[in-house]
Amino acid sequence: MNAKQMQQSRVQLFRDAANFKKTERIPHFANVVTWKVFDAGYTLDQAMTNFDVMKKTVVHFLDTYPVDGLMDVGIRNQFNVTEAFGGGGYYYYNEEVVGIHDHAHCTMDTLEAYLDDPTKYAWEVILPKKYGASWEQKTKEVWKKTFREYMRYIMYILKMSSLTGGTYGLPSLSPNNPMMGAVVPGPEELLSNLLGIQQLSIAMRRSPEKLDHFVERWHQERMVPIIEKIKNGPGPNYKYCFDSSILMLAHNVMNRKQFERFYWPHLKLLLDAYAEKGMNIRIFTEGSILRFADYFKDYPKGVLTFHLEQDDPFAFREALPNVAIMGGMTTDLLSNGTPEECVAYAKRLCDELGKDGGFIFSENKMLSYRNDAKPENMLAVCKFVNNYRL
Amino acid sequence: MEKNSYTSYPEGYRRLMKDIIPFYFRPMKEMLMRLLLTILTDG
Question: Which of A27, A320, B2, B14 is the most exposed place for a label (fewest CB within 10 A)?
Fold first, then answer.
């Protein structure tokens, strides 16, 4: 089988699992991000802005671990762009750690101005505030250097996509690439960028009407065009493992009443559109989603796949037998267990969750730090899942 | 010292696109700038 055929057969395997069809084996989409840097013998500061080193870490991972998909093919961090601009970004890294500072582009009083013209707002408010006095020093040369690094970054993305697909036969997770834009529910944008965790939490209690207005405008202006596109489109696109990938994090700071008011009504309209077209959607449910399980119980099998982070996958299957599960393998076990313990748990996951379809093996958390997994555990698990026949 | 002469909107923003984006990328200039802006604001 050549790389192209392998890519296609893997897409089919992921789709079958998501559609609750019995498969010969369980597919493994490795939720590996920067752990592979350490595993290849580098530190984060050596790889973050060096495309050659980052590429080597990806090649090392794919040569060592037999997997069917890889969450990050070394393209998630754009530090070379922000550093060319003079640094001062929200993301930071050192030898061992990569992280992001909580930040807020807006206050409750400026959300409207942001929605009125996001580019104008970014230019006149966000960038001057973020870069402080140095914003005034961004000369034409700095901008040119930044743009050159940005183009290098885009070329690198294309190169890595060609390498992982064309050489290793790995499929892409979903069509949400940076050039096409991602489906971002309003509450997620509020939490991640516009208000931050603290302001959003306070706003839900003190300014609920203003939030109502924001999420409605966000829906009308950002989500309705997407929903229309889905409804008028051809349906599933088997070039990818999923038709869309959505990240949910904001529900963790909401109670059920708040979820029902600020999140669910608009999310439901989006999911209903995907369901109507028989499309496969992956939702990465960061934190826990189990307390909101009943909202998702009426979707037919095949529409939703939840990538679980902290929820127990066996309890989740019982609560939502109609939703496929991605994940299951805990970083706790990968980092603290023995290869035998890890393989025994991997076998239980495959047997109990995947015997009738509806399960994609993956790690529950994004493997980012050195101690998120022992290499010998990771290798034992990858080999087991790859060879295990149901 | 030379200053950022692009701080106005939309004049400075448009002039910047013209100044830094090579002509062969011009058909995609809006999209390219949007993503660059996302990296600089959110990244």
Answer: B2
Helices and strands per DSSP (H, E), number in chain A: 19, 9
Q: How many domains does chain B have?
A: 1
Identity of the residue in A78, A85, A120 whose CB atom sits nearest the CB atom of B9: A120
Contact A136 B42 (CB under 8 A): no
Give pLDDT tens digits along chain A (390 positions).
999 999 999 999 999 999 999 999 999 999 999 999 999 999 999 999 899 999 999 999 999 999 999 999 999 888 999 999 998 888 999 999 999 888 899 999 999 999 999 999 999 999 999 999 999 999 999 999 999 999 999 999 999 999 999 999 999 999 864 334 468 999 999 999 999 999 999 999 999 999 999 999 999 999 999 999 999 999 999 999 999 999 999 999 999 999 999 999 999 999 999 999 999 999 999 999 999 999 999 999 999 999 999 999 999 999 999 999 999 999 999 999 999 999 999 999 999 999 999 999 999 999 999 999 999 999 999 999 999 998
Nearest residue of chain B to residue A138 (CA atoms)? B4
| Residue span of the structural domain in which B37 resides | 11-42
CATH number of A3-387: 3.20.20.210
| Residue B37 touches chain A, beta carbons under 8 Å | yes
What is the torsion angle, in degrees rounded to the nearest 10, for the CA atoms of residue A123, residue A126, residue A132 and residue A137?
A: -20
Q: Is there a contact between B12 and A91 if contact means CB atoms under 8 Å apart?
A: no
Contact at CB, B39 and A127, closer than 8 angstroms: no
Q: How far apart are CA A388 and CA A255, in angstroms?
A: 41
Chain A contacts in chain B segment 4-33 (CB below 8 A)? 4-7, 9-10, 12-13, 16, 19-21, 25, 31-32
CA distances from B34 to A159, A180, A376 (A): 22, 11, 43
A81/B7 Cβ within 8 A = no
